[in-house]
Write a structure and sequence with these properties.
Layout (H helix, E strand, L loop, with lengths): L24 H9 L1 H7 L2 H4 L2 H4 L6 H9 L13 H13 L29
Length: about 120
């Protein structure tokens, strides 16, 4: 079982899925809408680092096994257009707190000793 994380700040939490299989939200949405097609055409080498892609299970038997477990009730009732997918992604991006894009206010001006951060020398 995998914990389903909240969608707040989802823009900042990639790569996505427990395996890190996708690096952008558009591909995640498309995968959820059309998992069979995406599984059959997924190429880990296109998305993942080489060392991670080398461990990816994508052989025909694995894909067929996954397809047998898909619940047809989860399929979209109609094709979803590219514009609609973009709208879904825009909604997901809107769940990111704007303050997370600039974290410069989180840098302290001094350390516990009172010395300013800029004058701390590293040995």
């Amino acid at each position: 079982a995998f914990r389903t994380p909240p969608l707040r700040n989802v823009e900042l939490t990639g790569p996505y899925f427990h395996s890190g299989a996708y690096t952008n939200l558009y591909d995640v949405v498309v995968h959820h809408l059309y998992p069979e097609e995406q599984m059959q055409h997924y190429n880990a080498a296109d998305v993942l680092r080489e060392d991670v892609a080398a461990t990816w299970f994508n052989d025909e038997e694995y894909v067929e096994d996954c397809m047998e477990r898909l619940d047809p009730r989860l399929a979209p009732s109609r094709d979803i257009s590219g514009d609609e997918i973009e709208d879904i992604v825009a909604f997901l991006l809107a769940l990111t707190d704007p303050s997370t894009h600039d974290t410069s206010n989180l840098i302290p001006t001094s350390v516990m000793s009172g010395l300013p951060v800029d004058s701390v020398d590293m040995l």
